[in-house]
Write a structure and sequence with these properties.
By secondary structure, the chain is mainly beta. Helices cover 9% and strands 39% of the residues. The chain is built from 3 helices and 21 strands. The strands form 5 sheets. A 7-stranded antiparallel sheet has the order 4-16-13-12-11-10-5, with no helix packed on it. The chain has a 6-stranded antiparallel sheet with strand order 6-7-8-9-14-15, with no helix packed on it. A hairpin with a 3-residue loop joins strand 7 and strand 8. Helix 1 runs antiparallel to helix 3. The protein is elongated, with a radius of gyration of 25 Å.
Length: 348
Amino acid sequence: TITNSGEEGSVLVYELNVTPYPVNSDQIDGYGYAWIDSNDDSDIANYNWIDITDDNTILEFETNDTAQEIELLFNFPFYDYSYTNCLINPNGWIGFEDDNTGWNNQSVFSDEAPNGAIFGFWDDLNPSNSGNDVGSGYVRYHSDENRLVVWYDNVVHWTSLERIYDFQIVMHSSGKIDVNYRTMFGQVASSTIGVKSPEGNFGLEIVYNDDFIENDLSLSYNTAKWLSTSLISGNPTQLSSGSTATYSVDVNSSGLGEGIYTGYIVNSTNTAIDSDIFPVMLNIQESLLLGDVTQDGVVDVLDIVLLINIIMGQYTPSSLDFLLSDLNEDDTINVQDCILLINIILTN
């Protein structure tokens, strides 16, 4: 619930943003994709170069502005679509819709910029094997069932040997995207970096023809579409002093594999509240172990301790805690469940 506790008058209130990262609202697009870089003071984004030197395929291009299509070994989710092929353009970007031969990079949201694209470093690049004799460097890739790594291996900027770029775009089967910049030699304030949805209505522009990129830097894009918010009550566009807007937080685990997923709800309103970022964690298991109240994969004395705390009122169980604790399925957590839990431990 968001409450305007400010002075008399009214303030604008926007929808809450959902993101996989603890970021500001200007780092999230309207769909839910967010970005973070390895200069952020967190353990989420770290510089992580993936070495494919000993296992890669070198791409050959018809021209230094024409993409080459490759087949993926996994389904890659990108906005509301899933792709099994992608276009690798020699000019520093990967696409999923139509190729774009424009060598002169544009803003992400320009009509001249391709839709459905990941702009790692969109600029006028000229790798070898591109139909001319002045290119330098190679575009290499390696794909398996978990990820695709596209490596722009010391690719020159058109004919200038004073501008050589060594970076890679990594697409994970989960939908996460990483861009790793290793050695960016020379002018770097001439590129477009960001992502754009297949319809072109959503996207993130990290930089357009400006300084940002440096050596040993990683960018990460992701979305937490399993997490969403919806307005229950209140005026979503204005709150007078003392009034409230109430939202529900919804989780949908459909299509997600086993694991722990972390998302964040970002308050993008200008109302004063204790925190602007609220963490949400989703724990998906293929099967539930009855009695594993601590959810550590083992039924042991720690589960007894937590169960006793629940019975004594020292710990308020979540719905999942309740499900795992109610061993006799009588919709009540009491000493009978504790006895059954002890018997399970002794039997095993």
